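FORM 7B - TANDEM STRUCTURE REPORT

SECTION 1: FIRST PROTEIN
SEQUENCE AND TOKENS:
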Amino acid sequence: MHPMTALLSTLAIATTALALGDLKGNIRIDGSSTVFPITEAVAEEFAAEQPNVNVTVGVSGTGGGFKRFCAGEIDIADASRPIKPSEMQLAAKNGIEFIEIPVAYDGLTVVVNTQNTWATDLTVDNLKRIFSTENTAKTWRDVNPAWPAEPILVYSPGTDSGTFDYFKEVVLGRDGKARSDMSVSEDDNALVLGVSGNKYAIGFFGCAYYFENTDKLTAVKVNGVSPSVATIENGTYAPFSRPLFIYVNAKAASQPQVKAFVDFYLAQAPELAGEVGYVKFPAALYGKAAKNWTAGRKGTQFTTTAGESVTTPFATTYQ
């Protein structure tokens, strides 16, 4: 057996050994709405085996989760981007050390209404015109003279969202500014309703929410490539393939219920990621994550701001 596969099996066995409900305590989780479906699925499965452990999973956005995490208010932060230097500084100031664990791939998905028959393939430059304050496209005709002269209604995750941070970094640039007339929400389901309810709307969120609503929305090709399990995993869905993370408070990791939960998370993530609409990592990458978790490796492997250089090559660069 491959040593990394063996390590994952060990984690699964260790968790199964605790399947008699002998653990007690609380686990506090908050953060990304994108990572929420995976964490919620893990928490539900874990509760079936450990009913005396109370796991709460909030959805305040990646930025909101990190604020609470760096203040020591929660045990685990869900994140759709790596932790920022400013957040690491706040954590250090408060004496918070952490273990960074990648859990799955996401493909940030740009969506339009199913009645939109024109904007089926957009470039990053097109997206910049639509979402930026710079030379903003007010109507679809502003993007392409052949398209309708109808106002573009823009839906976006909130500014505390890691998905917003990632999109802004990739499309608008580090110093770019998003248009001020967007309809924003930390609830991705609200974005689904907004775009599906207006013929001239456009929005974006994690691929899981699109895969759940293919009858209500159309995914836009980006530079000619559609988001799919294959294109997200192999990196051709560029620049919107990205890893998702959980961050574990290193002190909390010593608590039996937290350790068991993260063991369980790593053992279940390959299966549950696909079930909730994301893309599982190669087994070797899960093996590296499990090894780092077992060793208690603290800190981040990233020093960039939101999303920069954190794409599918991550599978080979992550150590």
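SECTION 2: SECOND PROTEIN
SEQUENCE AND TOKENS:
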Amino acid sequence: MTRQIKTDDASGRGAVAGFKVPFPGRMHGYTEEGIKAVSAVMRKAEGQTQGAYLRQFEADFTAYTGANHVFAVDNATNALRLAAVLCRLGKGAEVIIPAYTFCATAIPFGKTGARIVWADIDPRTWVADPDDIERKITSKTRAIMVVHLLGMPVDMPRVMKIARKHNLKVVEDCAQAPGAAINGRRVGTFGDFGCFSWHGAKNMTTLGEGGMLTVKSHKDAALVPGLRHNGVRAITGKRQRYWVPAMSTVDIDIEGVWPNNFCLGEAQCALGSVELRRLDAINAMLISQAEKIKVRLADTAEIEFARIPSGYKHIFHQFIMHFNGRAFNADRNDLMDILVNDYRIRCIVQYCPLYRFPLFQKMGFGRHNCPVLDAWWDNSFSFPWWCGMPGETIDYLCNSTKAAIAKLKGLKK
């Protein structure tokens, strides 16, 4: 298995050249088995989409998650778009969405015309706080969106209890959490819909883009094939000639809603089945890496980690920490200055609260009441992170962080 680090990065993380420890755009490299699977589709598959490899990938993911219905799509954003449509949102409706997440979580719901209400984070787990969600429910609320950010599950038993009480739809954004679980139950199977990402930076990938939608109800699931594939479906009933009036027909699935083309190619599906077989091992390695860092920095009081509730499986899609330098008047930027400039560690800051972005402010969603997130986020940061980090790299990250904090204490006296 080989890996090449890009020198440019569309994620906005910046060029990696010149860093001792970079932050690569990919989580892991491909195996020979995956490469052969893609090549086999190129050589043998008669059709390149909507075929046997799609059906196999969906069957494999159904078996892995235990979801009622599974649909492969071209990316997680479009899985979220399908979920938003199936929630029957529109103008006048409200949907509660965590403010701490990637922008793609919220954009599909904003497109429906619904009003976005920002949810705060739990101060211990750093993902959506169910108590804050419940506080923000009104007579106009129609759906709750939760995000298992960074691989940390949200308290889904509590969220589902709230949703049942108020008769609300629940969408799980599992883009960063395939394989995460609560007491053995996989995320994406609690709510009405689960949305997964196979982007190249994720714990498993289908050639850089791809996604999956899980659906709980049979009624909603029956609508997805048409919504996913331009409203195309077979002509039913007996026909004298199979080609009359045409090979298929195009119809509507939800009144007033145009269908789309969100299909995932056969080569990507073939790779997806191979990657899925690796997923638990990849997650286990990331968990092991995270535990090593937490042990190494356990005596560094200024570095804080998210607390993982008992029975929760956090799969560490990224490794985010919180820096508390109040005692010597230092903040995250002071620490990162030293880590970047003195030790050439490409730390990053990610997932800015969505209400701070121009996009959401200009679209009318700048108002918020998220005091926990506002107090926490400005001192959060991420270590470089990928699956299979060498032990010496982990040692260097931890030793450098300790040295940088010691330097800050001396500078700020």
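SECTION 3: OBSERVATIONS ON SECOND PROTEIN
The chain has two domains: 32-275, 278-411.
Confidence is low (pLDDT under 50) at residues 1-8.

SECTION 4: SIGNATURE
Preparer initials: ____
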